[in-house]
Amino acid sequence: MATLHRYNDGSVLKVITARELVAVPIWKGQRILDKAHADNIKSAIEAVEGKPSSLDSGYSIVKYNEENADGQLVESSYLIDGQHRASVIRDYYQENFCEADFNVTVTEKSVESEAEAIEYFNRINNVKAQQWKTDPHLLVNRYIKAFESAFNKNKKQLLIRPGTTARPYLSSEHLREGLMRNVNLIRHIHAEALAKFVRAAEEYNRLLLNKFAIELTQACVKDEKLKERAIKANFALAYDTKLDWLSDVLTQASKN
Fold first, then answer.
1. pLDDT value at position 55?
2. Which of 93, 123, 141, 149 has its CA 20 to 30 A from that of 175?
3. 3-class DSSP assignment, residue 51
4. Three-state SS for 92?
5. Measured distance CA(244)–CA(242) in Å, rounded
6. Residue 33: phi, psi to the nearest 5?
7. Which stretches of 52-190 are DSSP H helices?
8. d(Cα 85, Cα 6) in Å, to the nearest integer?
9. Residue 73 confidence (pLDDT) above 90
10. Is the pLDDT of residue 247 over 90?
11. CA–CA dist 172, 180 (Å, integer)
């Protein structure tokens, strides 16, 4: 992978092959794939040359350091912009497996958190106002960013971390899945709605930590070590692996 240029924001312009590009998983905060838009791109290139080699630019990738099953940090990449063009290339190679590869340019940016990835996505994407209100992925992005901003105060010890992570820390991917399950409870994305959600989450965290503290004074405590770690981190919201508390917090926030 050849580096062509380094930008002031720390991102780099690189050359990779089209097959390498389509092997990169799509970032889960992306908008819902618009099949009609992808079909329009496909029709346009078929009318000119029949091959997608003209789709050789306009891609952005974010890279995280994520924990693997052994707790070691590994670098993971996700396509954060250009998913429609990439889907056309992917479909083409599925139908024409033996066709020659070609080079594409991509912009890569390393991020430390999901909130930083969301901020980068917002900066490089032109999203219609209506999409912010209707696309569930974009709705959830706003709530993840607000949640991380409230709880990831200590940059040296992030409480919400990319990818998989061990409790008491919370996986941003796990948080995204939980919010998507409760997206019907997300009705507003204005600043006050996000603030209410954060306050409700902070209050639930406080109540759960108090509950753990009381339980640790008793004998035969369930998950004693985990509760001790949660108290030490001042964060208990990853204790429930199903994140069932999200529905209560979102409901409470809508009432306040």
1. 96
2. 123
3. coil
4. helix
5. 5
6. -60, 125
7. 83-95, 114-124, 129-134, 136-151, 172-181
8. 24
9. no
10. yes
11. 12
Handedness of CA 64, 61, 142, 173 (dihedral sign): negative
How much of the chain exceeds pLDDT 70, in percent? Answer: 96
Report CA-CA distances (Å) from 248 to 87, 134, 181, 197, 204: 37, 22, 13, 10, 9
- Residues 6 or more apart whose Cβ sits within 8 Å of residue 208: 230, 236, 237, 239, 245
Peptide bond into 136 cis (omega under 30): no
Residue 187 has pLDDT above 90, yes or no: no
* Side chain identity at residue 87, one-letter code: S
Share of the chain above pLDDT 90, in %: 77
Confidence tier at 50 by pLDDT (50, 70, 90): confident
pTM of the entire predicted model: 0.89
Burial-class residue 197 by CB neighbours within 10 Å (0-12, 13-18, 19+). Answer: buried
> In the predicted model, what is the mean pLDDT of the chain?
92
- Work out the angle at residue 175's Cα, subtended by the Cα atoms of residues 170 and 176, and round it to the nearest 5 degrees: 145
Domain ranges of the chain: 1-110, 130-256
